[in-house]
Structure formats: C-alpha cells, structure tokens
Write a structure and sequence with these properties.
Residues 1-30 are annotated as: Disordered. By secondary structure, the chain is an alpha+beta fold. It has helices at residues 2-10, 17-27, 33-46, 52-60, 71-80, 85-95, 117-125, 214-227, 230-233, and strands at residues 98-101, 109-112, 135-139, 178-183, 194-198, 204-207, 238-248, 251-257. Helices cover 34% and strands 17% of the residues. The N and C termini lie far apart (66 Å).
C-alpha cells in the first residue's frame, strides 16, 4: 500500500518554473497578473518593435507595485503567454494582422489589428438599433506614449473614488451599454492623445490622432464641454459617450457612439 501511495504521489504534476513565477508575480506586492498582461499587450500592440528591456522600463514607469517587477521574471511571463517579439510576429502572420507604416513619429511601424468579426457585425448593425448613432471601435489598453518621448506635460486629473456597481451614473440607459468619459489634458495641443475610461477605471485606453474617428471624438468633447459653461471648461475638456464592450482572444475593444454623446455625468 505504501508503494501504491508513493506511485500516486509521483504521478502528481509538478509545478513548472513559469507557473511559480506567475504565481509570485501575481501575488507579490499586490501585482495583478491580468492587469500586467493588459499593459504588456497594449505596449506590444502599439510598439511591435519593443524588446523585453523596453517593455520592462515602460511597465516600471507605471509606478507602484510595477516598480518591483524583475526584468527576468517579466520575460518568463511574456514567453509563457506568447508575448515575445518572435512569437507575436508568427501569431500576427497567422491571424492576418496588417503591418502599416505611418508618416511622422520617425515612420515607426504600428500594428493595426483587424476588428474582430463580432465587433464588425455589431458595428454594422448599430444604426438599426433604437439608440442609433455611429459606433467607433477602440482598443483597450493602448498606452499614452507610443514614441519613446514624454507626452504633453499637462496632467489629466482623475478622481479616485471608485464607482459602486449599482451606481446609476456608471451605467447607461442604452441597452447593453455603459458610459465612458473621454478627457483632454488642460492646454494640450490638438494632436495630443485623449484618455478614455469608465467610472471605476476597469476599462482604460488612449485615443491617438492617427486612429480613425479621433477628430470627430475630439470635436464632440470640445462641443460638450462648451455647452457646460466656462466653469467646467476650466477643469479641462471632457465628454461622456455610450460604449459597448466586445472582445476577441487576446484583445478587448470598446464600441463608442461618436454621434450621440451620453448625458453629462458628475464623475
């Protein structure tokens, strides 16, 4: 019987080194593995040329618990989840991701992923729904700085009061939609990125000038801010939009209604 028990114990799968590393990373200092992967994927999406060292610097620059993340540990996590450059190139080739070069920003290559089929279908059908409007796909987790240089120095101040799940101001009257805020830094140039986030900061991304619909969203932000009067405008341009979430393996998108802004919120 002792031998049988011993045999059974021997058949138990041993924890792999990468699993141990992931567990340590997800628990050390309160670091959340899912959140870390979102940041990594966002950086790799906008900067496929970034190596592990640059990704590590960008992650550490987020501050807080990320400052303690070791580069070797980060590399193991990226390797396990297929986020190293060589792995991503092969995955992108198989998935049909289009590589494009844009004028400006030193003509760096940016990757523009095809919108997931379910998002395309949803976007095409939005105009027939009761709320109407035109819906723009926006990828979550896109970083504010994609050039390696610092952004406009004006600070976007976000209140840190976390929304309760049953808070009516955090949800929308449009079926299946939520309300998100798009905010511009005070005094920022017209081509500065705009921050988009929901009330509890679970969904966050930056809109950049080379993204489709940027000018239209910015125009709505300025219009809505002006309608609220100079007191609101002095705190920085902002506006609220209906948004619906859609996803594909490894990528998450928001569809935002750029034609019909959501009611003004207090957060």
């Amino acid at each position: 019987m002792a031998e049988a028990r011993s045999g059974q114990e021997d058949t138990k799968p041993a924890a792999t080194e990468s699993t141990k590393e992931d567990t340590a990373a997800s628990s050390e200092g309160g670091l959340d593995m899912e959140e870390l992967l979102v940041h990594i994927k966002g950086l790799k999406f906008q900067h496929p040329e970034y190596g592990t060292a640059r990704i590590h610097r960008e992650i550490q620059a987020l501050g807080g618990v990320y400052e303690k993340l070791n580069q070797q540990k980060l590399r193991k996590i990226m390797k396990k989840h297929g986020l190293l450059s060589s792995q991503l190139e092969e995955d992108n080739r198989k998935a049909g991701v289009i590589q494009m070069y844009t004028v400006g920003d030193a003509s760096k290559p940016h990757v523009h992923a095809k919108l997931p089929p379910e998002a395309q279908a949803q976007n095409e059908n939005q105009g027939t729904e009761p709320e109407g409007g035109r819906w723009l796909p926006v990828e979550l987790g896109v970083p504010g700085d994609r050039s390696g240089t610092k952004m406009h120095q004006a600070v976007i101040k976000m209140r840190r009061d976390v929304a309760k799940r049953d808070d009516p101001s955090a949800t929308a009257a449009v079926p299946g939609a939520m309300i998100c805020k798009v905010q511009v830094a005070i005094g920022a140039p017209e081509d500065s990125p705009m921050l988009l986030y929901d009330k509890d900061r679970r969904k966050q991304t930056f809109l950049h000038p080379d993204m489709p619909g940027f000018a239209e969203v910015r125009a709505q932000v300025l219009k809505c801010t002006a309608e609220q009067g100079p007191e609101v405008g002095a705190k920085g341009p902002k506006a609220f939009f209906y948004a619906k979430q859609t996803r594909q393996t490894g990528k998450q998108f928001l569809l935002i209604n750029v034609q019909e802004p959501a009611p003004w919120q207090t957060w």
